[in-house]
Amino acid sequence: MRINLGCGKRKMPGWINLDGQESVKPEILRHLEDGLPFADNSVEVVNARAVIEHVRKDKLIFVMKEVFRVLKPGGLFYIMVPHWAQKWMWSDPTHHTGWSREMMDWFIGENKPSEIGIDFKFKVAHYEPLYFPEARNIAEGWGIPLPEAGRHLVNIIDAHIWWLRKPGDDGPDWVQVNQEIRDLRVYPNGYNLDPNLLGYTAVEKVGPGAIDPSLTFTVADQGPEAVVPLTKLSQLNEPEPIKVKKKQLNKLLWFINVAWVGGTAYWALDAIKAMPDWDHVVCYLNGEENPFVTQQFLDAGVDFSKAGHGITKDLVHSIDPAAIILSNSSPKAIEGNHPWGWLAAEYPVFYVHHSAVTPWLPGVDADIFVSKYLMRQYGNLLARMKKAVVVPSGISITPYKAITRPHNDAPVLGSLASDSKLKFTDSKFDIFKEVVRINNSWRGEIVGGTKYYPGKQAQRVALLPFVDDPIPCYIRWSVFLNHGNVDDTWGRVVAEAMASGLPVVSDDRGAIPELVEHGVSGYLSNDVKEIIKYCKELMSDPVKRQAMGQAARERIFSICDGNPFKKQVEPLITKAIIRG
C-alpha cells in the first residue's frame, strides 16, 4: 500500500490519495493532524510533497510519529519542504513550519527527546537541497562546492528533499520509487522527483545527467553524518577589489529589486530626497511599477530613464557612477558567471538589506541593515562582511511635522499594511470586531481589507481599499494596530503612524520593539487577548492616547531627523569614492 498525503489536485494513480479538502475528492477525506487511518506497519511508501510545512508546529511531532507508525519496517517516507528562509515559505498563510537540516535532526539524530514524544528514529536514504539557479554562479565565482557556499549564504537553498526510511532489513529502493513517481507525470517540470536532477539548478542551467556529484549525496541509510568532505571557506584567498576611479564623482546609481509598490521604493525615495547634492539614477529590477511612486521619483529630480533594466556592464558603464547602492537585490539580476567580480571590482558598492531573504555576497564596501533584528538574522556571516552597519529605516518627516491631530470624541482604530496575505490574518479582523463592539461610538478601519477580507462584515468596521497616500488615514485614526503573521524587518507603516502622533499597539516581534517603547509610545504583545485589552484601554482614554501619541512622534522624529541613511551611509560613500 502506498499513500499520497495532501494530494490536492495531483492524484497519483495506483496510490491511496488522502487530503483534508473535500473539493479535491480524495479517496480518503482526512486532515493529517487528525492522524492516519491505517494499521501499524501496513504502508510501503508515504509521499508528502509540499505538505509537511502546512502542519502546525504543535502537531508536527504527532504527524511524523503517525507516518513512522504506519510504515512497514524498511518503508520509505518522501518529504519535500521549503527552506525556512524562503519568502515563499512565509507568503502562504497556510504554511506553519519552515525546515532546515537541523530541524530534521530531531527525527533522525541520536538524541531523541522522548519526553516530548520523539521516541522513534528515521534513517536517511537520500537528502538533496534544491538550489536557486544563481547559486551555482556564486559557488563557481568563489571556487568552492555548492553545498559549502550554502553554509555561508542566506537564501541560496529553495527547498529540501528527504527520502527517509523506517529501520528494517527489507524495503523498496528509493531510486526506483522516485522514478515511478516521476513517470506518473503528476508534477510540473522542475519538481519531478529525479535523482539525476538537482532542483532548479539542474533543470534550468545544466540538464539531465550533467550534475557534479559533489552537489548532491546519498547516504545509504547511514544518516546525515555521511556528507561528502567540503573545502573550508577560510582557506580561500579573496583578493581585495581594486576600485576604479570614475569620472562621474557626483552620481549615485540605485538598483531596487521588487517591492516597487511597497516600502523598499519609499525608503529609497526618502534617502534620495535627503541627499539633494548628488545626481541620482534609479533602476528598479523587477516588480510592478507604481505610477504614483514613479511620479514622486521624477518630482525629486531623479533620472528614471533606465528603469526596468538588469545590472549589465553596458548599462553601468554608460552611467559611469561614483558608487552603486543595491537595495534588496538578487544575484540573478546581475550579468556574468561571477556576478560580483566585475561590479565590486570597478565600483564602491553598498548593499542595503530590507529582509532576511536577500543573499549575502562578498566584495561590497558595506552591508547596510535597516534594523538590529534583521542584522541578527545573518548570524556568523557578519564576521565575513567588510563592514556591517545598522541604519534605521528613515522616513521623510517633513509632511508629518505639519500634522495637527483633531479632537475626536468618536475614536477610530486603524490599520494598514503592505499588500501581503501575511498582514491580513483572521485574528486581525477579530480584534477589530471585538474592540469596537464595546462602545457604539467607536469605529474601525482596515486599509486593504476590501482585498483580503471579502465577505467579512462587522458593525462599525470599515474595510477600505489600498491607498497611495496614507497620511489622511493616520490623521483620521486615534490608535494604530499592527498585527499579522510575519516578523517586520523594519516597520515602515509603524514609523509613519508614530510620526503622525498615533499610539501603536503591535505584535512584540521583529524590529517593532526597536521603534515602539512598551508602555511609553504604545503597547507590545504577542497575545491576542492582551492586544484587545490594550486597544480598548487607549480607545477609552483620550489623555493616555495623546501622551503616548506625542511620545511616539518624538521618538520617530529623533530617529529620522535628517534621514539615517544620509547621516550614516553618505560619509561611507564619500570616503570610498575618495579612496578609489
Task: Give the helices and strands, then pairings.
Layout: E1 2-5, E2 16-19, E3 28-29, E4 43-49, H1 57-70, E5 71-82, H2 87-90, H3 101-108, E6 123-131, H4 133-142, H5 146-150, E7 157-165, H6 174-184, H7 199-206, E8 251-256, H8 263-273, E9 279-284, H9 291-299, H10 313-319, E10 323-327, H11 339-346, E11 349-353, E12 366-369, H12 372-376, E13 388-390, H13 398-401, E14 412-415, H14 426-436, E15 443-447, H15 449-452, E16 461-464, H16 471-476, E17 479-482, H17 492-499, E18 504-506, E19 522-524, H18 528-540, H19 542-560, H20 564-568, H21 570-579
Parallel strand pairs: 1-2, 1-4, 2-3, 4-5, 8-9, 8-10, 10-11, 11-12, 12-13, 14-15, 14-17, 15-16, 17-18, 18-19
Antiparallel strand pairs: 5-7, 6-7
Overview in brief:
The chain is 31% helix and 17% strand. With 580 residues, it is an alpha/beta fold.
Task: Record keyword descriptors for this entry.
six-stranded parallel beta sheet; Rossmann fold; 21 helices; globular; seven-stranded mixed beta sheet; 3 domains; 580 residues; alpha/beta
Describe this structure in words.
The protein has 580 residues and is an alpha/beta fold. It folds into 3 domains: 2-232, Rossmann fold, CATH 3.40.50; 251-394 and 563-579, Rossmann fold; 401-560, Glycogen Phosphorylase B (Rossmann fold, 3-Layer(aba) Sandwich), CATH 3.40.50. The protein contains 21 helices and 19 strands. The chain has a 7-stranded mixed β-sheet with strand order 3-2-1-4-5-7-6. The chain has a 6-stranded parallel β-sheet with strand order 9-8-10-11-12-13. A 6-stranded parallel β-sheet has the order 16-15-14-17-18-19, sandwiched between helices. Helix 17 packs across helix 19. The protein is globular and about 75 Å long. The N and C termini lie far apart (68 Å). The model is unreliable at 189-246 (pLDDT under 50).
